[in-house]
Design brief:
Helix 4 packs across helix 8 and helix 7 packs antiparallel against helix 8. The protein has ten helices and 18 strands. The N terminus is likely disordered. A hairpin with a 3-residue loop joins strand 16 and strand 17. 26% of the residues lie in helices and 23% in strands.
């Protein structure tokens, strides 16, 4: 296992140009490639334990529905009636006891997506149950978490992306997690979505900006670069009881599960999945959070927390305390994200100078520039020409120019 002190300095310290955060053509291209054609987590299998249980996800104009069938199989569909495009389920989560019934005109679908019947069928042509059933979305699972992809994309299987972490995370029993009871949370942020990722992708700012995390981690925290679409950050706990009451209480009450090795029983692990997902894997709980762009200055954050299936009162208190540390960290980051967003409009802003400790940001920007080499350029292409210019640069890269 590497450490922060073993990370080599890197040469390219320049981040993305300011226009990368404010250009509407780029944002629309990002929605298509990075969000419609990349894996997005929806929920955990424990969120839909019974036949008919479902969870929905809205993302850059797409609507996904994952539902457990009568046969126990979890399937993903576009939340889109084949009749007039209505949502076939309106809620974020719920249960369809026997069938999925569109609330607009009452078309009925089986839980496996087949069309069972349309209202007043004599007024319609004959329809094939499969051909006119709900449109499926590509669905995969990793360690109990359910992912969908709306369109074919450049990523391999989510299991392949995360394979290098499997040995480490198996001891946590992620597939056996249970919802914490609070459900999914979401909020709006008046920033470009990449500003959130830029702040979250490095721990260099922890000692200055996050008293709670710094008290918990000390200088043990480090980030590893994005490789093949995923990244890892890790920290063992600082020795001693802690200065802040929440940290002292957390350390005193936490009794790590017996399945964890000694080091991971006193550590927090983060796994990032390009372009917008982070898992926080703790001895007491597991969280995920993700960001979706809406428009240039508007993004949505969504997340959830899961508990251990064998949680006792002591572990429940530890989960509360780790959640409190997380909430305070999020509030502290919100101001940093706003400042990062505001900076892109300043006449004095001419990019960034990355520290060796900001390897997460550098490698993340490299992932973005791999898909959008136009981001190497200091100025945006003329209006209406971004796709053309980016295509030229991609072709040159493929030809080794």
């Amino acid at each position: 296992m590497s450490s922060a002190n073993e990370q080599a300095p890197f040469e390219d310290r320049a981040g993305l140009p300011a226009w990368a955060y404010t250009n509407p053509e780029l944002l629309e291209a990002e929605k298509d490639l990075l969000f419609r054609a990349h894996w997005q987590v929806v929920c955990h299998v424990s969120d839909i334990p019974e036949p008919g249980d479902f969870v929905t996800l809205d993302c850059v104009g797409e609507r996904a529905l994952v539902i457990r069938g009568h046969d126990g199989v979890v399937r993903g569909f576009h939340n889109l009636c084949r009749h007039r495009g209505s949502r076939v389920v309106a809620e974020e989560r719920g249960n369809c006891p026997k069938a999925i019934i569109c609330p607009f005109h009452g078309w009925v679908y089986d839980l496996d997506g087949k069309l069972r019947g349309a209202a007043q069928p004599d007024s319609l042509p004959e329809m094939d149950p499969v051909e006119h059933g709900l449109k499926p979305v590509e669905t995969e699972m990793w360690q109990g978490f359910i992912f969908v992809r709306f369109q074919p994309g450049p990523q391999p299987s989510i299991a392949d992306i995360m394979k290098r972490f499997d040995d480490e995370v198996t001891q946590y029993g992620l597939d056996k997690l249970m919802p914490d009871g609070a459900g999914f949370w979401s909020n709006e942020a008046a920033v470009n979505w990449k500003c959130i990722r830029d702040v979250d992708n490095e721990g260099y700012h922890v000692p200055m900006a996050h008293p709670g995390l710094d008290d918990l981690f000390g200088r043990n925290y480090y980030d590893e670069p994005f490789q093949n679409g995923a990244a890892r950050s890790y920290s063992t706990f600082r020795k001693g009881p802690g200065r802040l009451w929440s940290v002292r209480a957390y350390k005193s009450v936490l009794t790590p599960p017996e399945t964890l090795d000694e080091e991971h029983g006193q550590a927090w692990l983060y796994l990032g999945v390009f372009p917008n997902l982070v898992f926080g894997i703790y001895p007491d709980s597991v969280i995920f959070y993700q960001e979706f762009p809406v428009e240039i200055g508007q993004s949505i954050q969504r997340g959830a927390c899961y508990r251990r299936s064998d949680e006792d009162r002591r572990m429940r208190l530890a989960r509360y305390l780790s959640g409190r540390i997380d909430r305070l960290t999020t509030e502290e980051d919100e101001e940093l994200v706003r400042w990062a967003w505001e900076a892109t409009f300043s006449s004095g802003y001419d990019g960034v100078i990355l520290s060796d400790l900001e390897e997460g940001v550098r490698s993340y920007h490299d992932q973005l520039r791999h898909h959008f080499p136009v981001l190497h350029e200091a100025s945006p292409p003329p209006d209406g020409k971004l796709a053309e210019r980016n295509g030229q640069l991609l072709s040159q890269a493929e030809q080794g120019e």
